[in-house]
Write a structure and sequence with these properties.
- The complex is a heterodimer of chains A (about 220) and B (about 200).
- Chain A is an all-alpha fold and about 220 residues long.
- In chain A, about 65% of the residues lie in helices and about 0% in strands.
- A two-stranded antiparallel ribbon of chain A has the order 1-2.
- In chain A, helix 3 crosses helix 4, helix 3 packs parallel to helix 6 and helix 7 crosses helix 10.
- Chain A is globular.
- In chain B, about 35% of the residues lie in helices and about 20% in strands.
- Classes of the chains: A mainly alpha (about 220), B alpha+beta (about 200).
- At the A-B interface, helix 4 of A face helix 1 of B.
C-alpha cells in the first residue's frame, strides 16, 4: 500500500509526469506558449487522469488480463472524447486555441501509464488521488513553462484569460513593459525545449541540495515503475 | 481446446461490452452538447461576419443566407466553398467569401473576404493560418491593423499594378522580415475581387 502522502509527493515531485517521467511532451511543448493555454490543457489532462484512473480501478477486479490494455484504451478514449465535447460546448474559444491537442490527450502515455502502473492495482480512492496528483504535477509544470515562455516571448502574463474566464478576465493580463519587443525564440518550439530543460535543471538542483532522503523510496519506485 | 475457446469468447464479450458502454457514454454526451456546439459555431461565424459588415447595414440572417460556390482558381479553393449574402430589406448589400491564399510561407491562409455589391471591399480577416509567430502572423487583426488596409479598396483603387506589396512596386505594406505572407494575402484578395467581378450575377441569383 502506498500512503496518501507518498502518492501526493510522487505525483507532484518525485515522479512528476513532465519533469521526471518526461511523458506527454507533445502537448506540453506545443501548447505552452502562454499560461492560459497551459492551464486549459493541464485541466483537461487532469480531469482525464482522475476519471480514467477511477474507472480503471473500479473494473480492476474482473477485467480479463488478455484484453486489459484494449479496455484501458477504450476507457481513456471515451473519457477524452467526453472532455473534448464538454470543452467545445462550454469554452468554445479555448477549444479553438487548444484544438488538436485535446484529442491528443489520448496518446499521452502518462495516462495509460498510470492506468496500468497504478490504478489497475489499487482501490478507487488511492487511484483517483494518484490521478489528481499526477495531473496536478503536469498542470503545474505546464503553468510554469507557459509563464516562462509568455514572459520572455511576449512580455505578458495571463494574456487571453478571457478565453477561459469570460470578458471580465481581460483585465487579468499583466504587461511587463509596454515597449517590450518580444523574443521570438521563446514562442517557437526550440524555446519550449530550452524552457523544459531549464525546469528539469532547477528540479534536479533542488533535489541535490536537499539532504539524502530516508531509505523508503524503494517502495515508491516499485509503485511508479 | 474447449477451454481456450471459452476464454476467447469471454474476453471478446468483455471487450465488446466495454466498446458498447464507451460508445454509449460518448453518444449521450454528443447528444447533450451538440446544440450548444452548433450554436457556438454559429456565434463564431456571426462574430466573424459582423466584423466585416456593420450590423445596421443588413437585416437578413446572414449565417443562413449562404450559397455554395464550386471550386474556383480565383478563390484558391479545391472544393465547393460557402459564401454568405448580406441583404437589407431584400436588396443585396454584400457577399462574404471564404477564400484561400495558397502561397503563404507555411501553407494555406484561410481568409474571409467581404465585398460590397459595388465591388469595393468591406474588409478582410484571416480565419486560419500557420505563418511564423512574430513575423508573418501580423496578418491577424489582434496582432496588427495591417489587414484593415484593404477596407474600401476595389479593382480600380488601386489599379492592377498597385495590387502588390510595396517591394513588388504595389501599394500594400509588407512586414519587417516577412514579405511572402502579405504578398500571398494581397494576391488572394485581388483574385477574390476578380472572381466577384466575373460571377456577381450568379452569387445573388
Amino acid at each position: 500500500m502506498t500512503t496518501r502522502r507518498e502518492i501526493t509527493h510522487n505525483g507532484l515531485w518525485n515522479s512528476n509526469v513532465a519533469l521526471v517521467q518526461l511523458l506527454g511532451l507533445c502537448p506540453l511543448l506545443a501548447v505552452t506558449s502562454t499560461v492560459i493555454n497551459g492551464l486549459g490543457l493541464g485541466i483537461a489532462t487532469l480531469i482525464t487522469l482522475v476519471l480514467s484512473n477511477s474507472m480503471v480501478s473500479l473494473i480492476r477486479g474482473f477485467v480479463r488480463n488478455e484484453v486489459r490494455l484494449p479496455v484501458f484504451v477504450l476507457i481513456i478514449a471515451s473519457v477524452v472524447t467526453i472532455v473534448e465535447l464538454t470543452i467545445k460546448a462550454l469554452f468554445y474559444d479555448l477549444y479553438l486555441v487548444l484544438g488538436i491537442f485535446i484529442p491528443l490527450i489520448v496518446t499521452n502515455c502518462a495516462i495509460i501509464g498510470r492506468a496500468e502502473g497504478f490504478a489497475s492495482r489499487n482501490a478507487v480512492g488511492p487511484a483517483a488521488l494518484d490521478g489528481l496528483m499526477m495531473g496536478l504535477g503536469f498542470l503545474i509544470a505546464l503553468l510554469i513553462l507557459g509563464g516562462l515562455r509568455e514572459i520572455i516571448g511576449f512580455g505578458t502574463l495571463f494574456a487571453h484569460a478571457e478565453l477561459m474566464f469570460g470578458d471580465d478576465a481581460k483585465s487579468l493580463m499583466i504587461e511587463i513593459h509596454p515597449d517590450y519587443p518580444g523574443f521570438l525564440l521563446a514562442v517557437l518550439p526550440p524555446g519550449a525545449f530550452f524552457g523544459l530543460a531549464l525546469l528539469i535543471i532547477v528540479k534536479n538542483w533542488l533535489d541535490l541540495r536537499r539532504p539524502a532522503p530516508q531509505p523508503q523510496p524503494l517502495e515508491a519506485a516499485a509503485d511508479s515503475a | 481446446m474447449q477451454v481456450n475457446r471459452r476464454q476467447i469468447l469471454l474476453s471478446g464479450t468483455f471487450l465488446w461490452l466495454f466498446a458498447v458502454g464507451g460508445t454509449t457514454l460518448v453518444a449521450l454526451t454528443e447528444y447533450s452538447t451538440s446544440a450548444a456546439i452548433t450554436e457556438n459555431e454559429r456565434q463564431l461565424l456571426l462574430r466573424n461576419l459582423y466584423a466585416l459588415l456593420p450590423r445596421n447595414s443588413l437585416d437578413n440572417d446572414i449565417a443562413a443566407d449562404s450559397v455554395e460556390l464550386p471550386a474556383a482558381a480565383l478563390l484558391g479553393t479545391d472544393d465547393a466553398s460557402t459564401a454568405y449574402r448580406a441583404r437589407l430589406a431584400g436588396e443585396p448589400v454584400a457577399v462574404v467569401f471564404n477564400s484561400i491564399a495558397r502561397n503563404g510561407y507555411s501553407g494555406r491562409i484561410h481568409l474571409l473576404v467581404g465585398v460590397y455589391v459595388d465591388g469595393s471591399l468591406a474588409g478582410v480577416r484571416v480565419v486560419k493560418h500557420a505563418e511564423t509567430p512574430g513575423l508573418g502572423d501580423a496578418i491577424e487583426i489582434r496582432k496588427s491593423p495591417w489587414i484593415k488596409s484593404f477596407d474600401g479598396k476595389s479593382l480600380d483603387n488601386p489599379d492592377t499594378a498597385g495590387w502588390r506589396v510595396k517591394r513588388d512596386g504595389g501599394e500594400f505594406d509588407q512586414f519587417t522580415g516577412a514579405t511572402i505572407t502579405p504578398r500571398a494575402v494581397v494576391g488572394a484578395v485581388h483574385a477574390t475581387l476578380l472572381y466577384y467581378q466575373q460571377n456577381a450575377d450568379m452569387i445573388f441569383d
